[in-house]
Design goal:
Shape: globular
Distance between the termini: 50 Å
Bound molecules: phenylalanine
Low-confidence stretches: none
CATH architecture: Orthogonal Bundle
Number of strands: 0
Helix content: over 70%
Radius of gyration: 21 Å
Number of domains: 1
CATH topology: Hydantoin permease
Mean pLDDT: 93
Length: 443
């Protein structure tokens, strides 16, 4: 069996976990979610959820990983044999996400390269997606990069690449956001993005209590995805954390980085989208905004080419560092499960990633279906079961002792949180989100 590595220190861990958290979700999902849900109302809800839910949930997953020093396939089983299936679930989720995330990564590679040469506005996204060779080569390049960094290992691959990509990503984000904010044309969009507006709580037109409920659901769902919670990633990364490292401090820092980049991404994207295509475009988000509208917006801006290059470099780094974290999770789960060497595991995962990405590369419908299965169906179930498991099966003391929390009131608060507040909230969100997306109820 492979010898388990350790992060070289607190900073290396915080950087790696933040690199996982800061991903495409921050850039193309967060801003449009805010635009669709009352601007500042969403921002406020998101920040509150991140602090009061995000931090304790991160602490929980990281502590489980460090306590057992195993990835999800074995963590739960080690703590209680009968609960192995939660580990299976936490293992399946990244297995589903990895291939389709790498397809999106492939699109980003294409845009990154084009931004240096012909400019991205010249790409016709829809017809390019039918160019199987083009999509194939870019996707393969992205997969190869992901694989290489995982193959090289925790210290040589993941830590070293994050040390370059994360500071660059943060500097680029700040620089582009400052540039956009200084443009006089950005004012209306900034107001639209940041000022709380209860009259437009939901893009479907819902306001009042139903609109607020929708906004809260959206903020909570976004928080889970963005912090890489309930995907097995934080358990895996936690398994490499040193025993003397402070998990609560690390968790607070990860949440800070992730929220900071998300808020700035909104400042980059919303003003341009709003000036260019009004509220409708700002709310749209997704592929269309990122790969069709934004390139056009850039090309109409002063210094647009430079902004474009900076932007797609930033997106590439965000996508790659997140992709590494899922690939690492799958590799680590596989190695713990089959007791094989890490490099053998990495090669198997690479082959799997390549083959399993073919349906998503060929069809947006397939990609959407995988995303729905992981994001809407399985992740909330996994989050719920993890809280239930810690709260009622192994008991909160296991986590509290692992993080060496000795203050009685903090122990009490965490216990109430993990036993009641978190599972109830997650269940409500899951059921109402599901009914809403199948059109059974309309929030
Ligand atoms: N947290 C990532 C983001 O915001 C999401 C993610 C990470 C998804 C890793 C998959 C794998 O985009």
């Amino acid at each position: 069996m492979w010898k388990r590595a350790n992060w070289s220190g607190h900073l290396a861990f915080v950087l790696a976990a933040s690199a996982s958290a800061v991903g495409l979700g921050n850039i193309w999902r967060f801003p449009s979610q805010a635009a669709s849900h009352g601007g500042g109302v969403f921002l406020l809800a998101y920040v509150i959820f991140s602090v009061f839910f995000g931090i304790p949930l991160l602490i929980t997953e990281i502590a489980l990983g460090r306590k057992t020093r195993r990835s999800p396939s074995r963590t739960f089983r080690r703590l209680n044999r009968k609960w192995w299936f939660v580990g299976a679930l936490a293992m399946i989720i990244p297995v589903i996400i990895l291939p389709y995330y790498s397809v999106i990564g492939g699109w980003v590679v294409k845009y990154f390269i084009s931004s240096f040469f012909s400019g991205t506005a010249a790409i016709d996204f829809d017809s390019w997606r039918n160019d199987i060779m083009g999509v194939g080569v870019c996707t393969f390049a992205f997969q190869l990069l992901t694989f290489a960094l995982v193959f090289l290992g925790i210290k040589q691959g993941i830590e070293k690449s994050n040390k370059i990509m994360m500071p660059a990503l943060i500097l680029l984000t700040i620089a582009i956001a400052v540039f956009v904010v200084l443009q006089p044309a950005s004012r209306a969009g900034i107001r639209y993005y940041m000022i709380p507006d209860f009259s437009r709580l939901s893009s479907g037109g819902a306001s009042g209590a139903a609109g607020l409920a929708r906004t809260l659901l959206a903020a909570m769902g976004q928080m889970f995805f963005s912090l890489s919670i309930a995907m097995g990633i934080m358990i895996t990364y936690g398994s490499y954390v040193r025993k003397d490292d402070s998990i609560p401090k690390a968790s607070a820092r990860i949440v800070f980085f992730d929220t900071f980049v998300a808020l700035l991404a909104g400042l980059i994207i919303i003003p341009g989208a709003f000036a260019f295509g009004g509220a409708e475009l700002a709310q749209k988000g997704g592929f269309q905004l990122m790969f069709v509208s934004l390139p056009k917006i850039f090309s109409s801006m002063a210094f647009g080419r430079i902004v474009e290059i900076a932007f797609f470099t930033l997106v590439l780094f965000a996508a790659l560092t997140s992709s590494i974290s899922i690939a690492e999770t799958v590799t680590s789960s596989l190695c713990d499960f089959l007791l094989i060497k890490r490099r053998t595991g990495a090669i198997i995962v690479f082959l799997y990633m390549f083959l399993a990405s073919i349906p998503s590369a060929l069809s947006l419908k397939a990609l959407g279906a995988f995303d729905f299965t992981a994001d809407i169906l399985l992740m909330p179930i996994c989050a719920f079961l993890t809280c239930f498991f810690v709260g009622w099966v192994i008991k909160p003391d296991v986590v509290l002792d692992e993080i060496a929390e000795s203050r009685p009131h903090a122990r009490k608060l965490y216990t109430i949180f993990i036993r009641f507040i978190a599972p109830i909230f997650i269940a409500v969100i899951f059921v109402s989100g599901l009914l809403d997306s199948f059109g059974i109820i309309s929030l």
